[in-house]
Amino acid sequence: MKVLVVGNGGREHALAWKLLNSPQVEQVFCAPGNAGTAAMAGCQNLPLAVDDFAGIRDFALANGIELVVVGPELPLSLGIVDYLRANQIMVFGPNQAGAQLEASKSWAKALMVEAGIPTAASATFTREEAAQAKAYVQQQGAPVVVKADGLAAGKGVCVARTVAEAEEAIESSFSGQFGAAGNIVVIEEFLTGQEASILALTDGEVIAPLLPAQDHKAIGEGDTGPNTGGMGAYAPTPVITPELMTQVQTEILEPTLATLRRRGIDYTGVIYAGLMISPTGEIKVLEFNCRFGDPETQAILPLLETPLDELMVACCSKSLAQLLPIRFLPEAAACVVMAAGGYPGDYEKGKIITGLEAANATGAQVFHAGTQLQGENIVTSGGRVLGVTATGATFAEALRRAYAAVDCIHFDGAYYRRDIGYRVTT
Ligand SMILES: Nc1ncnc2c1ncn2[C@@H]1O[C@H](COP(=O)(O)OP(=O)(O)O)[C@@H](O)[C@H]1O
Ligand SMILES: [Mg+2]
Q1: pLDDT tens-place string over residues 225-246
Q2: For ligand 1, is residue 223 a contact (CB within 6 Å)?
Q3: What contacts 245, CB < 8 A, 6 or more positions away?
Q4: Three-state secondary structure call for residue 233
Q5: Going from the N-terminus, what domains does the chain have, and what CATH number goes with each?
Q6: Ligand 1 pocket, 195 CB below 6 A?
Q7: What are the pLDDT digits (tens) for 73-118?
Q8: What's the CA dihedral at 343, 349, 352, 357 to 10 degrees?
Q9: For a pocket test of ligand 1, which of 124, 287, 289, 292 has the largest count of ligand atoms closer than 8 A to its C-beta?
């Protein structure tokens, strides 16, 4: 089978790597991929942007691509799945209607309320209702959470410590900080606890979670400082006990799928539920994403035993039930993200990366995110540069292996957190 993966991040490198592990996958193409996908045997990058739908279609049709896997939310929300399916191409991911689960937080909130899914109390306001939005935060008090409705590359959420900060967030969203994505805001009750990510596969009829993961969003050790795209992740997080997983299945995943169906949406692909687990074990949904998480995917896939290509084809052909239960290695996995100095603020690009071979020789998997080939060299090209992943019998062992590989790698200004997985090792 020939597969085309759309995207260029660490998630897509992990997807391409896992797909190539399957005996049935003979070749993977990445549009556009990165230096990591370019270097993998059996994998080839294509100079196609993630929103070049016609280019992706033409390549798929001309080269006998049997499955397209869409990594990022942007092309999903732009309708890449509808477009490719109209050309008889099998594609893993939700259609544009389904992608609203991530592309509109107010739409997702309304769905959760309709489905009776536990989530933070909230109110939604349009730009014309700025005065009501401010009155609402004054009435609620702080802390309170202000969310831009649409896709904002992880920058659209303000956890406001004061009412003034919340009002400022409302103003900047309505004044165009996030473009049209900020024309509506969702204002939400502040929740406390531990977060966890549940990535579930669905064929529109059944829905099955992968291992629960936890990521580290903050840039600084001890979960301090501004939020990033994710500085590391591990799986399976023990915060989601088997009992909680059953609850997630029956109270969140199944009602979400049923409500999508009631709305006439045939959702296939990944439903990612971002959860908050309160200190007393109460679960609430913070948000949904319509695709694999990054970097959770880099921690989950090394533990997946059922062939990923088979799962994806089953999702596309309504036969996922036949592959259940999904099988996993009974081990632990951890991913440590190496970022460019300065990230998530301004950072430099084009730094030469050395030590990748030595890192891979330790047995860890170095997933590339922001990298690119420049002549003979692999250089940095993004904020999050690499996701160094390892497995082990315990979290301590997985983390020790991941950090041993991190120690092999060098580039100017490299920054990473040394405390990934602290909750499961201390
Ligand atoms: N209601 C809430 N209470 C407390 N923290 C929240 C709440 N909603 C979001 N957050 C924090 O903000 C982060 C980003 O919010 P999220 O809804 O996941 O949006 P996005 O991932 O699109 O930026 C969450 O991971 C969480 O740390
Ligand atoms: Mg999130």
Answers
A1: 999 999 999 999 999 999 999 9
A2: no
A3: 209, 212
A4: strand
A5: 2-86 (3.40.50.20), 121-189 (3.30.1490.20), 194-323 (3.30.470.20), 332-425 (3.90.600.10)
A6: yes
A7: 999 999 999 999 999 999 999 999 999 999 999 999 999 999 999 9
A8: 60
A9: 287
DSSP label at residue 13 = H
Q: Which is it for the CA torsion 102, 105, 382, 55, positive or negative?
A: positive
pLDDT tens-digit readout, 132-179: 999 999 999 999 999 999 999 889 999 999 999 999 999 999 999 999
Compute CA distances 120 → 130, 146, 189, 192, 276, whole Å. Answer: 21, 12, 5, 11, 10
Beta-carbon contacts of 282 under 8 Å, excluding residues fewer than 6 positions away, are 118, 193
59-71 tens-digit pLDDT: 999 999 999 999 9
| pLDDT recorded at residue 163 | 98
Please work out whether the CB of residue 302 comes within 6 Å of at least one atom of ligand 1.
no
The whole-number average pLDDT for the span 261-278 is 98
Residues constituting the chain: 426
Both tokens assigned to 313: 């084809």
End-to-end CA distance of the chain: 44
Whose tokens are 């497995």? That residue is 391
Q: Is the pLDDT of residue 29 over 90?
A: yes
Find out whether 326 and 80 touch, Cβ atoms under 8 Å. Answer: no
120 CB within 6 A, ligand 1 = yes
pLDDT at residue 123 in the model: 98
Scanning 95-241, the segments in alpha helix (DSSP H) are: 96-103, 105-115, 130-140, 163-174
Output the 3-class SS for 31-92: EECCHHHHHCCCEEECCCCCCCHHHHHHHHHHCCCCEEEECCHHHHHCCHHHHHHCCCCCEE
CB under 8 Å to 51, separation ≥6 — which residues?
74, 75, 78, 80
pLDDT on residue 154? 87
Mean pLDDT, the chain, integer: 97
Q: How many whole angstroms from 102 Cα to the centroid of ligand 1?
A: 13
Q: CA–CA separation, 161 vs 175, rounded Å?
A: 21
- Whole-Å CA distances, 315 to 69, 73, 208, 336: 11, 18, 10, 30
User: Residue 207: enclosing H or E segment and its boundaries?
Assistant: strand 207-209
Q: Grade residue 426 by pLDDT with cuts at 50, 70 and 90.
A: confident
